[in-house]
Write a structure and sequence with these properties.
Layout: H1 2-9, H2 16-28, H3 32-45, H4 52-64, H5 68-81, H6 88-100, H7 104-117, H8 124-136, H9 140-153, H10 160-172, H11 176-189, H12 196-208, H13 212-225, H14 232-244, H15 248-261, H16 268-280, H17 284-297, H18 304-316, H19 320-333, H20 340-352, H21 356-369, H22 376-388, H23 392-404, H24 411-417, H25 423-432
Helix pairs in contact: 1-2, 2-3, 2-4, 4-5, 4-6, 6-7, 6-8, 8-9, 8-10, 10-11, 10-12, 12-13, 12-14, 14-15, 14-16, 16-17, 16-18, 18-19, 18-20, 20-21, 20-22, 22-23, 22-24
Length: 434
């Protein structure tokens, strides 16, 4: 860009290529006003005629910024003032711009203008863009209409990407039968081979609906009929699906298949999913077994999320000593810093057991040793705990403490207090916050 400016400033007879380079540079930086200034300089001062490439660059620049009206203004200037014919690339750019903004009617208007007024033939890329746009909006009937137009009227062959887009669209809407119909059409009528991404999408769709048998059927079809190798993402999806249904034995079977038959290494996400599944079922010993397997056999480092999950699981079972043991392991052996969520969970666990002194100890550790600031949720938990123990003075001490630290009581705070505190006291509390 600097060289192009130098050439122009030194009256070195810049040509169209020089201006195109400069305009392209500004467009890539998103500086569209400067790009337009260069166009004006080129036309009115240097009397050079911009070519199609320059207009393509400008239209692309405005589309990337989502300024579609300005992109269309450039098209009008190009066609009606400069008498230049836009090409397929320009129409593709415009259609893509409108699709990205979700303005599908305008995208279709551009297609009509391109085909019926300019007599240009849209290519597979344009149809892919339109189908993707409708799928992202969940308008699957219109996406299928575009496919029909593409195939039967334009005699264009859809590629794997288009089928992937359609299958993904139906899966996101939970319309798995239609997604499978598209797969059948793709394979048996169009003789296209689905890839791992398509199978991942289908498996994820069935898992999200809790239809695990069908998800496993897709896996079998993928492996033994299509000879495709499932990746870690697919196994993660299946394990997550079984965990969400509480079918932990099946989730563990998938892990075994993944590791010992497919020789794939499970990642931290998979272990997190398994630990979360066992914790939700209250099977804490098994959750800890998974942690041991993860750390000492697979040499993977558990993260804060995993420790949060384990602590929450023990707290829900009222096993507070074990929850504190996990905290110690996390801090002093793994050198991980617990966050506010973990402290909230521990304080809530002690409060539910009525062990308010231990809840207070956790708060002290959090504030003065870890330098973490308790939030309104932690204060509400403590206030509620003291109220349930009948210790109203201590509950009110925490109300004043939170206000003094700039934390305003919320609806939950007032809900806890209103059954035990006089209305005028509640009004005073409200006044302290102002």
């Amino acid at each position: 860009m600097d060289l192009a400016r130098y050439v122009i400033s030194k009256d070195c007879a810049p040509n169209v290529v020089t201006y195109n380079t400069l305009i392209d540079g500004f467009c890539k930086k998103g500086e569209m006003e400067k790009a337009m200034d260069v166009l004006v300089d080129m036309e009115h001062l240097k009397r050079l005629k911009p070519d199609v490439a320059i207009y393509n660059t400008l239209i692309d620049g405005f589309c990337k910024k989502g300024e579609m009206e300005k992109a269309m203004d450039v098209l009008v200037d190009m066609e009606h003032l400069k008498r230049l014919k836009p090409n397929v690339t320009i129409y593709n750019t415009l259609i893509d711009g409108f699709c990205k903004k979700g303005e599908m009617e305008k995208a279709m208007d551009v297609l009509v203008d391109m085909e019926h007024l300019k007599r240009l033939k849209p290519d597979v890329t344009i149809y892919n863009t339109l189908i993707d746009g409708f799928c992202k909006k969940g308008e699957m009937e219109k996406a299928m209409d575009v496919l029909v137009d593409m195939e039967h009227l334009k005699r264009l062959k859809p590629d794997v990407t288009i089928y992937n887009t359609l299958i993904d669209g139906f899966c996101k809407k939970g319309e798995m039968e239609k997604a499978m119909d598209v797969l059948v059409d793709m394979e048996h009528l169009k003789r296209l081979k689905p890839d791992v991404t398509i199978y991942n999408t289908l498996i994820d769709g069935f898992c999200k609906k809790g239809e695990m048998e069908k998800a496993m059927d897709v896996l079998v079809d993928m492996e033994y009929l299509k000879r495709l190798k499932p990746d870690v993402t697919i196994y993660n999806t299946l394990i997550d699906g079984f965990c969400k249904k509480g079918e932990m034995e099946k989730a563990m079977d998938v892990l075994v298949d993944m590791e010992y038959l497919k020789r794939l290494k499970p990642d931290v996400t998979i272990y997190n999913t398994l630990i979360d599944g066992f914790c939700k079922k209250g099977e804490m010993e098994k959750a800890m077994d998974v942690l041991v397997d993860m750390e000492y056999l697979k040499r993977l480092k558990p993260d804060v999320t995993i420790y949060n999950t384990l602590i929450d699981g023990f707290c829900k079972k009222g096993e507070m000593e074990k929850a504190m043991d996990v905290l110690v392991d996390m801090e002093y052996l793994k050198r991980l810093k617990p966050d506010v969520t973990i402290y909230n969970t521990l304080i809530d666990g002690f409060c539910k057991k009525g062990e308010m002194k231990k809840a207070m100890d956790v708060l002290v550790d959090m504030e003065y040793l870890k330098r973490l600031k308790p939030d309104v949720t932690i204060y509400n938990t403590l206030i509620d705990g003291f109220v349930k123990m009948g210790e109203m003075d201590k509950a009110m001490d925490f109300v004043h403490d939170m206000i003094s630290k700039g934390i305003e009581p919320d609806e939950v705070t007032y809900s806890i207090l209103k059954a035990f505190v006089e209305p005028d006291v509640l009004l005073k509390i409200g006044g302290l916050c102002k």
